Fold:
Amino acid sequence: MAIVPPASPMQTNREDVVAVVAPPLEVPKRLRFVTRALLTLWSNRKARAGLVILGFFILVAIFAPWLAPHSPTATSFRPYQNPNAVNWLGTTGNGQDVLSQMIYGTRVSLLVGLGAGLLATCLALIIGLVAGFRPGVVDDVLSFSTNLALVLPGLPLMIVIAAYLRSNSMWMILLVIGFTGWATGARVMRSQTATLRTRDFVTAATFSGQRLFRIVFREILPNMISLAAASFFGAATAAVIAAASLEFLGLGNPNTVSWGSILYWAENDNALLTGQWVLVFVPGLAIVLLALSFILINFGIDALSNPRLRER
Structure:
């Protein structure tokens, strides 16, 4: 019978040191939340399709210099050409390659849509949080302003403001859309904040002497992340369509390569009358697909906030 020698004290101490020095790694809570949220989005078929479409446009915007076969502003081709081996989508009335303009135009359209959506969502969050957490005069004033902004027609208001500013830069369009698209989100945020204000954890934080800033941004806002994300994608959808509409009406910079400016020049050159249907169909289809991707992603965000909507 073999005799097993007892473990030496030095060996035992080494094992204890290893156990103390190398504890099991734990995934941070925030990272787990983000991972779980992304998996929930990806498990939703509609949201998955929206993420694929949006990812495609983002990749096109990033790699535009390598994907575009020609310069988007070069006028070295024969005008009004139909799709051919050199110009896959034909040329404009100025002899520019339509495919190259579509590829480079993805950058401007994405930037305006996402930037205006983010600006509108930030304004909606600030106004909704303040109005919902401060009942009384502050709530009355902000709610009146929100209701007033809701009854004003969106596109005519943008047209009036853009024409009054007399600036046709891309940033002007982004600011106009952002500052006129916050009302719907602010009303939803205000209702949710007013509901959360009466919850026990918020009351406990108030009685414990926590500052207002901490209560709003550490107790209330984390419970509204899915609502804020849905508001962002909804605002981005409206921003993409509004930006194309303003540029089509000539209120943007016609020399900036974007999907809306392609439609503007197509209307100026009577593209449909000359048989250049590609100049109208392709940018219109791209605008619809980008807006559709935001809408489809919103289905997945609804599943995040409402488990009953999650697909089995």
Remarks:
- DSSP finds 14 helices and no strands in the chain.
- The longest helix spans residues 98-133.
- Confidence is low (pLDDT under 50) at residues 14-22.
- The radius of gyration is 27 Å.
